[in-house]
Amino acid sequence: MNYWLFKSEPSSWSWADQVAKGDTGEEWDGVRNYQARNFMREMAVGDRGFFYHSQDEKAVVGIVEVISEAHQDSTTTQDRWQCVDIKAIKELPSPVSLAEIKGDPFFDNMPLVKSPRLSVQPVAKENWKKICQMAGCET
Fold first, then answer.
1. pTM: predicted TM-score of the whole model, two decimal places
2. Helix H or strand E segment including 122
3. Residue 40 and residue 38: Cα distance in Å, rounded?
């Protein structure tokens, strides 16, 4: 299993919106960055991801699961843009802020710290475990 991070502006798509979709989940559409798209092409059904609220909150707030492999993004007719579908698994007992992550040297090489603008990015297994611990949840 691989681990990922999905960033969203809560004013356009929030954790509550994701939860409301239930087991049918939702397309992670609208990504127009080649590197982020390529990461989605690498995803497999069953991979886990952090749901991250950007803008004001800047925190990991939940865990999602990839429920489809990469497919055509329904928001465009251009073949080059693909996306996966994800569903909410659980809300973190305690959100983990970007400030907390940046404040810990353990995360210095994490893409969230090094490439904070990238909307879809990998998370190393050890970073996944530590963020889950910080949030007070099981990995």
1. 0.96
2. strand 120-123
3. 5
d(CA 16, CA 5): 17
pLDDT band at 139 (very low <50, low <70, confident <90, very high): low
Quote the longest CA-to-CA distance of the chain: 43
Rounded Cα–Cα distance for residues 130 and 127 (Å): 5
Q: Which two tokens stand for residue 80?
A: 């080059």
Task: Render pLDDT for 43-57 as a digit per residue (tens, 0 to 9).
Answer: 999 999 999 999 889
- pLDDT tens for each residue of 92-111: 999 999 999 999 999 999 99
Eight-class DSSP state of 106: G
